[in-house]
TrEMBL record, chain A:
CDD domains: TM_PBP2. It comes from the Bacteria. This is Spermidine/putrescine ABC transporter. It is found in: Cell membrane. Belongs to the binding-protein-dependent transport system permease family. CysTW subfamily. Residues 67-276 form the ABC transmembrane type-1 domain. It is a multi-pass membrane protein.
From TrEMBL, chain B:
The lineage of its organism: Bacteria, Pseudomonadati, Pseudomonadota, Alphaproteobacteria, Rhodobacterales. The complex is composed of two ATP-binding proteins (PotA), two transmembrane proteins (PotB and PotC) and a solute-binding protein (PotD). The keyword rRNA processing does not apply. Keywords: ATP-binding, Cell membrane, Membrane, Nucleotide-binding, Translocase, Transport. Part of the ABC transporter complex PotABCD involved in spermidine/putrescine import. Responsible for energy coupling to the transport system. This is Spermidine/putrescine import ATP-binding protein PotA. It holds the Pfam family ABC_tran. The keyword Transport applies. It comes from the Bacteria. It is an enzyme of class 7 (translocase).
TrEMBL record, chain C:
The keyword Signal applies. InterPro entries: SBP, Sperm_putr-bd. The keyword Signal applies. Keywords: Periplasm, Signal, Transport. This is ABC transporter substrate-binding protein. It is found in: Periplasm. The lineage of its organism: Bacteria, Pseudomonadati, Pseudomonadota, Alphaproteobacteria, Rhodobacterales. Residues 1-23 form the signal peptide.
């Protein structure tokens, strides 16, 4: 009894988060895993233990196709975010002399995070639309004569929108990683005869890889699970895996198949996370 | 000996009012060990970084072996730097760190291996070849940083406070090691430090800097014996200062009223009678006079404080005119309270005439 | 703070945030936008003393998941005629006491004959409003008005065509293929429809999912031809000054019918029946006709509250029109084949 009283605060501190995890993470996963073995039967579905749903996912080409498409979009978003975020973060850390300007630019990238996701996605609809800002701009410059419909309702628009929405998750870890690199390391490299480019490749880039890996993981996983962008700016070929899962739980009323899809998706994401974790760890041993 | 580095009127003005280095000219001979000494903010590090190419001067020229390198980037200069916290690459092994500087030389693999080995043998750490910097101690990293710089066989090796991150014991040991290394490799060393002992122990020549300018340069012994200013006198060693007035001059001997008495001195500067001067005396040159004992100059006063520091005592004495003077004395063999000087006791101090510094004007150092 | 207090606090928080109000005399309806519009609901609330809380669905697919998530929240729902049967089979709804509903016998006999709203001789759904899944085009984009479903497959309209993101796409494609038995397609016919839709895909600008989205697509000039919920989006577009015309293609159009259903075990039965009576009366019938532009299921109520023009425009006295519509039919266990084919098209 006295043991309990003495340890009660500690048990509460640890217990509540643990209960939270058990109740709102492990239990739902358990339910999803269970459902994934059930059987679709009109009007809903019945308990069973069979692998039909998983077999369907890997044999019906429509699921493999959507998985590959989602993979492609996520990789493109991560790559585009990286190509934009890295030079930006590099500029902020190493080139921007004014601390005020640096803070301002950093906030400019991070601030959209405080704006509703939907609003940000809608912005791109008005920019990329046939009668949108981009078309008006290009026409006023005389680059095109009539509005182009090539910008909206396709995979390009999805990549642009998702890149815009998730780029803060690439900038932040890269910025942090670059900031942690002591300036005297690049000076040492120059001192040892390396020009700026070779110094970048041999010192700065390798040392910032943990940040890059973290950024890739974040943007990839966020894109991989997205289903708003396909809905708002995606075209007829824009269906992603999350949309398919939503359809299975909604319109198709096939929770077992939807659950199996969710499990496969989870496995893909966890694989990516553990790969990048390994990479970060490897970077860590070389880390500062 | 030929000049390897020539600095000609080098200045670094960050703004009209913020001046890092102000019109410094200095020549370093080939094979010399020169130390830039001064407190933080005196411009010594900035000067070193300009030699290394990490900063550009706003005026003047830098010549390396008769070639103007003033605006050359670091990777085009045949000088190498040992950074204050070593700047070893954490993502590379010790071997890779040392070999890094050889990449631009386009050497074949065997040559690289031999040179890396030689450099590591030189600092006695060849067995750490495949370890990472994080696995080494501070002193070992210091040696690796040296090996990495020396392996390129630069014309000049720059050392930016190389020992400041080490603890006192190790620092003393490394001072000697560095000095030996310098003798062994025969490369010109230019070191920056704020530690006067380091400067005196290691260097052929010391350049004392003050507020972006050179206060005085010379062999350690010359600086110690003939400081050009109270600033130098106090930065190299310790000096007690007394205000004084020249009462008589004859030949190289001056008679000066100071510390409540008339003292004789051999000033390094030309003085005029009646001039206001500052007299400097090093505590270690002040002798506690026994009864009946005498000296060139004798001061009388009372002991204000006695500080014990193991090797000896520092006795702070208040003179008749209220000015203060310090005297160091070794401890007698047998330590007993009765023989130790006591606070408040009257005391006589003796100083030889050639050990008295005379500086013009009044100075509050 | 004890564990008990923490738990109570958490539950309280859940109660505050999670559910619609459960007060006495309050009915919670899960329905389409416009079906509980304040323009006629507030009058009902005043006279009946029952409060109405409306939650809106975006598609018929929302009813089952919302009710599966747990009972006791909603009292009344309005699925369309292809979903009503599912609600009955899922045991989510209870039989209606038609004697308690005034005007029941004024409902179009054609609707009361539909299989989807009854089971074992009992009615589960009260027909409320109906319309066609018509087609629609932008006036300024056509010199000759389109008349066929095939116009949605025209190469020269590439990138300007939209289609409802719904299994009904299969119905459209089947009719284009000449298969008029759209609710009892064979596997081969479904496969053919799927192929036809895949062929159309490069021409599609975007599949529309919500009424608002289709309006936006027309407004922004992205789309010039599509299918539509007759009467609804066209009037929204007219308000925006976009000139569009609805048409029934020569391959015919599907018809839909929404019915009110009472969720099984509702504790608010009294208010629920008051609500049903109101919705079938002039107040409810003309309410939805005025707000959404849908036709009424109670012709005699419609006749007394509509202007003759509106009465005619909504085909209230036009048995031939009603007969021409291919009224949605529950697909039963063929449902999966249809949705699967449509999903496969979208995955392509």
């Amino acid at each position: 009894m006295s043991f309990l009283r003495r340890n009660l605060p500690g048990m509460l501190v640890m217990g509540i988060p643990l209960m939270w995890i058990a109740l709102f993470m492990l239990l739902p996963y358990g339910i999803i895993v269970t459902y994934s073995f059930w059987l679709k039967k009109y009007p809903t579905f019945i308990p069973a233990f069979q692998f039909g749903n998983y077999i369907t996912i890997f044999t019906d080409p429509q699921y493999v196709r959507v998985f590959l498409r989602t993979l492609k979009i996520s990789v493109l978003v991560s790559a585009a975010s990286f190509l934009l975020a890295y030079p930006f973060a590099y500029y902020l850390v190493f080139r921007c002399r004014s601390a005020a300007l640096r803070t301002w630019l950093y906030m400019a990238v991070i601030a959209p995070l405080w704006v509703s996701y939907l609003l940000r996605a809608y912005i791109w609809k008005t920019i990329l639309g046939t009668e949108g800002v981009l078309n008006s701009f290009l026409m006023s410059l005389g680059i095109i004569n009539e509005p182009s419909s090539l910008f909206l309702y396709n995979q390009f628009a999805m990549v642009v929108t998702l890149t815009y929405i998730f780029i803060p998750f690439m900038v932040m870890p890269i910025y942090t990683a670059l900031e942690k690199i002591p300036t005297n390391l690049t000076e040492a490299s120059a001192d040892l005869g390396m020009g700026p480019w070779r110094s970048f490749w041999t010192v700065t880039l390798p040392l910032s890889l943990p940040g890059v890996a973290a950024g890739f993981t974040l943007t990839f996983c966020l894109s991989f699970g997205d289903f708003i962008a396909p809905f708002l700016v995606g075209g007829p070929d824009g269906n992603l895996i999350a949309n398919v899962i939503a359809t299975q739980f909604g319109a198709a009323l096939n929770w077992p198949l939807g659950s199996a899809l969710a499990i496969v998706m989870l496995v893909v994401v966890l694989t990516i996370v553990s790969l990048s974790d390994r990479m970060e760890r490897k970077g860590m041993t070389g880390g500062v | 000996m030929a000049a390897i580095i020539e600095l000609e009127n080098i200045s670094k003005h960050y703004s009209p009012t913020i001046i890092g280095v102000d019109n410094v000219s200095l020549t370093v001979e080939d094979g010399e060990f020169v130390t830039l000494l001064g407190p933080s903010g005196c411009g010594k590090s900035t000067l070193l970084r300009m030699i290394g190419g990490f900063e550009e001067p706003t005026g003047g020229a830098i010549r390396l072996a008769d070639k103007d390198v003033t605006f050359d980037p670091p990777y085009k200069r045949e000088v190498n730097m040992v950074f204050q916290d070593y700047a070893l690459f954490p993502h590379m092994t010790i071997g890779e760190n040392v070999a890094y500087g050889l990449k631009t030389f386009k050497l074949d693999k065997d040559t690289v291996r031999t040179r890396v080995k030689d450099a590591l043998m030189l600092v006695g750490l060849y067995d750490k070849l495949n370890q990472r910097p994080q696995q080494l101690s501070g002193g070992q990293r210091q040696r690796i940083a040296l090996a990495r710089a020396i392996v390129r066989r630069p014309k000049v090796l720059l050392l930016d406070e190389p020992l400041s991150a080490l603890d006192a014991k190790l620092r003393e040991q490394m001072q000697i090691e560095l000095k030996h290394l310098h003798e062994k490799v025969g490369i010109t060393f230019i070191m920056v430090t704020h530690d006067q002992t380091e400067a005196l122990v290691m260097s052929d020549r010391v350049v004392v800097m003050e507020k972006g300018r050179i206060a005085q340069e010379g062999r350690p012994q010359d600086l110690y014996d003939h400081p050009a200013s109270p600033y130098v006198a106090n930065f190299i060693g310790t000096t007690s200062f007394l205000p004084g007035k020249v009462s008589a001059l004859s030949g190289g001997v001056a008679t000066i009223a100071a510390g409540g008495t008339q003292i004789t001195a051999h000033p390094d500067v030309t003085l005029s009678e009646g001039a206001t001067v500052t007299v400097g005396v090093r505590p270690e040159k002040v002798k506690l006079l026994a009864e009946g004992e005498t000296a060139d100059n004798v001061f009388e006063g009372t002991i204000a404080e006695v500080i014990y520091y193991g090797l000896g005592l520092r006795i702070s004495v208040t003179l008749a005119d209220g000015s203060k003077i310090d005297a160091d004395t070794l401890l007698p063999d047998k330590l007993s309270h009765s023989t130790l000087p006591q606070s408040g006791a009257p005391v006589r101090l003796g100083v030889a005439a050639h050990n008295v510094f005379v500086f013009e004007g009044t100075v509050t150092p | 703070m004890t564990i008990k207090k923490t738990m109570l606090g958490t539950l309280g928080l859940l109660a505050l945030t999670a559910s619609p109000v459960l007060a006495e005399g309050t009915i919670n309806v899960l329905t389409w936008e416009g079906y509980a519009d304040p323009s006629f609901i507030s009058k009902f609330e005043e006279t009946s003393g029952c409060q109405v809380n409306a939650t809106y669905v975006g598609s018929n697919d929302d009813f089952a998941p919302k009710l599966m998530a747990g009972g006791g929240v909603y009292d009344l729902i309005t699925p369309s005629i292809d979903t009503t049967k599912l609600m009955i089979d899922l045991d989510f709804v209870e039989p209606l006491d038609t004697a308690k509903i005034e005007g029941w016998n004024d409902i179009y006999p054609k609707f009361l004959a539909l299989d989807g709203i009854q089971k074992d001789g009992e009615y589960y759904g009260m027909p409320y409003s109906w319309g066609a899944i018509a087609f629609m085009y932008r006036d300024d984009a056509f010199d000759t008005p389109p008349t066929s479903i095939a116009d949605l497959w025209r190469e020269d309209l590439k990138g300007k065509i939209s289609l409802w993101d719904d299994k009904s796409a299969i119905y459209v494609a089947a009719r284009k293929n000449g298969d008029m038995n759209i609710y009892s397609l064979s596997d081969e016919q479904i496969a053919a429809a799927q192929k036809t839709l895949v062929e159309q895909k490069p021409l599609i600008r975007k599949y529309w999912a919500t009424a608002g989205e289709l309006v936006d697509l027309y407004k922004a000039g992205e789309v010039v031809i599509s299918n539509t919920w007759a009467g609804y989006q066209s009037s929204l577009l007219a308000d925006e000054g976009v000139k569009v015309t609805e048409f029934i293609p020569k391959e015919g159009a599907e018809g839909w019918l929404d019915s009110w259903m009472v969720v099984k075990g509702t504790p608010n039965k009294e208010c629920a029946y008051k609500f049903l009576n109101m919705q079938l009366s002039e107040l409810g019938q003309c309410g939805v006709a005025n707000v959404n532009g849908y036709s009424a299921a109670n012709a005699s109520a419609a006749k007394s509250c509509m202007t003759p023009e509106q009465f005619a425009a909504l085909h209230q006295d036009d048995p031939a029109y009603l007969d021409s519509l291919l009224i949605w039919t529950p697909l039963g266990d063929r449902f999966e084949a249809y949705t699967n084919a449509w999903n496969a098209v979208k995955a392509q």
